[in-house]
Amino acid sequence: MKIAVASGKGGTGKTSLTAALVRLAGRCVAVDADVDAANLALLLPGYNGEWRTFRAGRRATIDPASCTACMACLDECPFHAIRLSDSFLPVVDPLACEGCGVCHLMCSAGAIRFDEHEAGAWTVRRTAWGPLVHAALGVGEDNSGKLVAEIRKEATRIGSEEGIDVVLIVGPPGIGCPVHAAVGGADLVVAVTEPGVAAAHDLTRLLDLAKWFHIPASIVLNKADLHPSAASDLRAMAAARGVPVLASLPFLPAVPRALARGQGLLDVDALQPLLAACWADIRQMLAGVPADVDRHGNP
Questions:
Q1: In Å, how far are 31, 34, 167, 171, 190 from 182, measured between CA atoms?
Q2: Distance between first and last Cα of the chain
Q3: CATH class of the structural domain 64-110
Q4: Alpha helical stretches, state H, 27-87
Q5: What letter would DSSP give residue 268?
Q6: What pLDDT is stored for residue 118 in this prediction?
Q7: Pairing of strands 217-221, 188-193
Q8: pTM of the predicted structure, to 2 decimals
Q9: At 297, phi and psi to the nearest 5?
Q10: Residue 254: in which H helix or E strand, if any?
Q11: Of all helices (H) and strands (E), which one includes residue 160?
Q12: Can you give the three-state secondary structure of 191-234, one letter per residue?
């Protein structure tokens, strides 16, 4: 069973919710697919294994011994990634190079080669609730979707090897390529949102994405009591779409205090029954039994 926890916008609380669901699951494989800002490990104490290099894309390198300084590569590079060195030979700026290959085509001396590019790294953390696969994308890199696919593949391998049926994936915000890689093939999308115009707009886009992938969706409404009328509008929208609201979590000052101590939502007593009911509903939906729309009511 693959469960993807996602959000249309950042800061809605999907990582905190995922950490709570991991603990409620008992034993699962967790995946932090928000590779630009992975922080699920902060709430799941454990020990990281060896960091493994993730390579994606290519970067050009100019061999100065073969270069004839014809400057064709410098003139034709569409990204202006080639400049003159102090020795008046062209060199490649690896941060600007996009690996398009134009310079290689223009070089009559064959002085330009392309090497695999190190775009990030990933590792497996061993926690009390099972393995956590997480990663760090390099600064300014644009292959986050490929890195998400890589760590999801590793999570599937670990689950099969260790006989773990549940895979919990926390995705990045938005609906772009990394989100596609995070939610694609999931059995259920849990969309975390909060009352507000921006959150409501981005939630509808996320629900449309889940529908496009033919994945059942559900909603967890966080900080639901901060804007009651907006929360009511979100519930009405969910009901119109037939998407169940599995939990309406109130805003509690105890939550940021717990997070600051490295604790999770389950360490806040008032949230324990709401989160337990949410996990029960998720298991019910995965078993093929429709959950009641917003049966938890207002906080």
A1: 9, 9, 12, 6, 12
A2: 29
A3: alpha beta
A4: 72-76
A5: S
A6: 87
A7: parallel
A8: 0.86
A9: 70, -165
A10: helix 254-260
A11: helix 144-162
A12: EEECCCHHHHHHHHHHHHHHHHCCCCEEEEECCCCCCHHHHHHH
Task: Please list, residue by residue across 223-236, b when 16 or more beta carbons sit within 10 angstroms of its beta carbon and e when fewer do.
Answer: bbeebeebbeebbe
Which pair of structure tokens corresponds to residue 81? 């990634």
Q: What is the pLDDT along the chain (299 residues), one digit of tens a residue?
A: 999 999 988 889 999 999 999 999 989 999 999 999 899 999 999 999 999 999 988 899 999 999 999 999 999 999 999 999 988 999 999 889 988 999 999 999 999 999 888 889 999 999 999 999 999 998 877 778 899 999 999 999 999 999 999 999 999 999 999 999 999 999 999 999 999 888 889 999 999 999 999 999 999 999 999 999 999 999 999 999 999 999 999 999 999 999 999 899 999 999 999 999 999 999 999 987 665 544 444 43
The reported pLDDT for the residue numbered 294 is 47
The residues near 232 (Cβ < 8 Å, ≥ 6 apart) are none
pLDDT at res. 158: 97
Task: Name the phi and psi angles at 210, rounded to 5.
Answer: -60, -40
Residue 295 in tokens: 């049966």
The Cβ of residue 10 has, within 10 Å, a number of other Cβ atoms equal to: 12
Place of tokens 């990663």: 135
d(CA 188, CA 244): 12
Task: State which fold the 2-54+122-286 domain adopts.
Answer: Rossmann fold (3.40.50)
E-only strand ranges, 64-195: 82-84, 90-92, 112-127, 130-137, 167-173, 188-193
- Burial profile 38-69: b = 16 or more Cβ within 10 angstroms, e = fewer: bebbebbeeeeeeeeebebbbbbebeeeebee
Residue 164 near residue 130, CB atoms below 8 Å: yes
Q: Say what the pLDDT of residue 33 is.
A: 95
- Cβ burial of 78 (10 Å; 0-12, 13-18, 19+) is exposed
Can you tell me the distance from the alpha carbon of 89 to that of 165, in angstroms, rounded to the nearest whole number?
Answer: 57
The domain ranges of the chain are: 2-54+122-286, 64-110
